[in-house]
């Protein structure tokens, strides 16, 4: 009887243990899913093109790890007067860059406190025209190279010059990526302007051709009408 009772206890405890293990796995998976996939990367660069409807405001959120450098820039590619409002809020909800109606703008936080930054594009002053906006975001963790240097020192290798050089190269690469983003913004605006001018010239040319054809047809009709001779059906006796 005692063996049977112990066996029944084991049979009851096994499903409970399995359920607890499943719950722990689900909680761990949920916590991992909440973390961005790029959190452990030393540097991340993202380039977006978004369409902002007339009279609307759109906000985008970017996670930045504590101590990293956050940079964002925006440029209006096409639409309306070529300008929009741009604002940035830090993870504490404070407006670190207030709204300004302009064609291009950027913001840099050298040492981030960590959390989600909010980047908002405002098109509320434009009631009829939507805007195509280019957004460029970079998140760089320069302390990753310091950690790499400490790991090298543990191997008793003198890599200070190498680490400093790599850090300088990383900063220069980040600056060049920013310049390239500005160049892409200008190229996008110029290309959009080229397409608009091409469409305008084609429409204007076709309209002129249609007007000329109509004018020539009307002139030919009235000139022929002028020289038209009416024949009389009655003969004189």
UniProtKB/TrEMBL annotation:
UniProt keyword annotations, A-Z: Developmental protein, Membrane, Signal, Transmembrane, Transmembrane helix
Signal peptide: 1-30
GO terms under cellular component: cis-Golgi network; endoplasmic reticulum-Golgi intermediate compartment; membrane
Pfam family, one: EMP24_GP25L
Membrane topology: Single-pass membrane protein; Single-pass type I membrane protein
Primary location: membrane
Transmembrane spans: 206-227
Biological process terms in GO annotation: egg-laying behavior
PROSITE patterns listed in its UniProt record: GOLD
Domain GOLD residue range list: 57-139
Subcellular location as annotated: Endomembrane system; Membrane
Family the entry assigns: Belongs to the EMP24/GP25L family.
Classification via PANTHER family: TRANSMEMBRANE EMP24 DOMAIN-CONTAINING PROTEIN
Name of protein: GOLD domain-containing protein
UniProt organism field: Drosophila simulans
């Amino acid at each position: 009887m005692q063996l049977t009772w112990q066996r029944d206890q084991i049979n009851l405890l096994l499903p409970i243990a399995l359920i607890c293990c499943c719950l722990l796995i689900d909680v761990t998976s949920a916590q991992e899913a909440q973390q961005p996939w790029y959190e452990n990367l030393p540097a991340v660069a993202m380039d977006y093109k978004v369409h902002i409807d007339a009279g609307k405001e759109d906000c985008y959120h970017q996670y930045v790890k504590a101590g990293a450098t956050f940079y964002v820039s925006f440029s209006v590619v096409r639409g309306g007067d070529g300008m929009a409002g741009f604002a940035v809020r830090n993870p504490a909800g404070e407006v670190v860059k207030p709204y300004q109606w302009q064609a291009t703008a950027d913001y840099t936080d050298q040492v981030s406190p960590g959390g989600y930054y909010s980047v908002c594009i405002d098109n509320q002053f434009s009631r009829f025209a939507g805007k195509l906006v280019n957004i460029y975001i970079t998140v760089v963790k320069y302390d990753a190279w310091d950690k790499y240097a400490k790991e090298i020192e543990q191997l008793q290798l003198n890599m200070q010059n190498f680490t400093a050089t790599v850090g300088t190269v990383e900063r220069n690469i980040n600056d060049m990526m920013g310049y390239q983003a500005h160049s892409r913004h200008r190229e996008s605006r110029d290309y959009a302007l080229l397409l608009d001018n091409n469409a305008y010239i084609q429409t204007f040319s076709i309209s002129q051709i249609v007007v000329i054809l109509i004018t020539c047809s009307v002139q030919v009709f009235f000139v022929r009408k002028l020289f038209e001779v009416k024949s009389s059906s009655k003969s004189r006796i």
